[in-house]
From TrEMBL:
Residues 10-328 form the Enoyl reductase (ER) domain. SMART domains: PKS_ER. InterPro entries: ADH-like_N, ER, GroES-like_sf, NAD(P)-bd_dom_sf, YIM1/Zinc_Alcohol_DH_Fams. PANTHER family: ALCOHOL DEHYDROGENASE RELATED (PTHR11695), RETICULON-4-INTERACTING PROTEIN 1, MITOCHONDRIAL (PTHR11695:SF294). GO terms for molecular function: oxidoreductase activity. This is NADP-dependent oxidoreductase. The lineage of its organism: Bacteria, Bacillati, Actinomycetota, Actinomycetes, Kitasatosporales. It holds the Pfam family ADH_N. It comes from the Bacteria. CDD domains: MDR_like_2.
């Protein structure tokens, strides 16, 4: 089958290739890929940024988001059947959605939201799971909390805005002024145009900041939190809890060293810092599908690329040009 494979870490390490169709284990479903979403995480994995924690053996197929049709199920699978339209974010070390087929653990799969096209469904698993887990599992957001979402026009930010509003929070977001109306349509109560206004000049008013930019943006985010507030970053630096999450407890000291400065800064300010790395969860995708079908959440797509242009789609995301999710589409036959 055709796939896009990382044969060596680095920007030039991703190439089109012919690879064997994946084997299907007893607890797996084999999915014919109809669409695959592209995420910043794909670049990070391609470049080897997590290679000490996620031991992918090159060559491996890249890609973390998928929507498609089940073609075969393993002997122990009872909840899916051939012909089901599904979506998923496959678990780490079993990724590979930039391909014609992928075998996925049944626990990571859910029926596709019926109201979404394949392209729309492929755009949401990773960002929807990340939004849910960050807001519900980590931050435990309650009605009335004040939330600041950076990059609200992007795939993750736009999803966090919608889910935070559904959970009853008051949401502020930073966007380019050209995207202000879009952010308000998604549910943002307050919009900061980062091209004209420094969000850090605002009072310390937030219970939670979700950072997807890192660096100086993260450092400044700590200063706008209320006492005891929480800054969650999806781009790092990783903290000791991340080593435990990926089953590498011996690397806790290393993760602690990497995040030492930001955690010390947070303690000095009387706030908290957490690195966040989402996990695959089919049960949560099932719950999220209901929110998409109810219209509570809507996918935000920028554009689609044909599968053969996956490298161009990756470059488009890396250049920071995307206003929403980028999806590659495969032929239906």
């Amino acid at each position: 089958m055709k796939a896009f494979v990382v044969d060596s870490y680095g920007k030039d390490g991703l190439h089109a290739a012919d690879v064997p169709e994946p084997a299907v284990g007893a607890g797996d479903v084999l999915v014919r890929v109809r669409a695959a979403g592209i995420n910043p995480l794909d670049k990070m994995v391609r470049d080897g940024e997590f290679k000490q924690l996620l031991k992918y053996r090159t060559p491996f197929v890249l890609g973390h988001d998928v929507a498609g049709v089940v073609t075969r199920v393993g002997a122990d699978v009872r909840d899916f059947k051939a012909g089901d339209e599904v979506y998923a974010r496959p678990r780490d070390l079993r990724i590979g959605t930039f391909a014609e087929y992928i075998a996925i653990d049944r626990a990571d799969v859910a029926l596709k939201p019926s109201s979404l096209t394949m392209e729309e469904a492929a755009a949401v698993p990773l960002v929807a799971l990340a939004a849910w887990q960050a807001l519900v599992d980590v931050a435990q957001i309650k009605p009335g909390r004040q939330v600041l979402v950076h990059a609200g026009a992007g795939g993750l930010g736009s999803t966090v805005i919608q889910l935070a509003k559904h959970l009853g929070a008051s949401v502020t977001t930073t966007v380019n002024g050209k995207d202000a109306d879009k952010a308000r349509t998604l549910g943002a109560d307050h919009v900061i145009d980062y091209t004209t206004t420094d969000f850090a000049e605002q009072p310390a008013a937030y219970d939670l900041v979700l950072d997807s930019l890192g660096g100086e943006n993260l450092t400044k985010s700590l200063t706008v939190l209320k006492p005891g507030g929480l800054a969650i970053s999806v781009v790092g630096p990783p903290d000791p809890a991340f080593a435990a999450q990926v089953g590498k407890p011996l690397l806790k000291p290393v993760m602690g060293l990497l995040s030492r400065k930001v955690r010390a800064r947070a303690r000095k300010l009387g706030v908290r810092y957490a690195f966040f790395f989402m996990r695959a969860d089919g049960a949560q995708l099932k719950a999220l599908a209901a929110l998409y079908d109810a219209g509570t959440l809507v996918p935000v797509l920028d554009r689609t690329f044909p599968f053969d242009e996956t490298l161009d789609a990756m470059a488009y995301v890396e250049n920071g040009r995307a206003k929403g999710k980028i999806v590659v589409t495969l032929p239906t036959s």
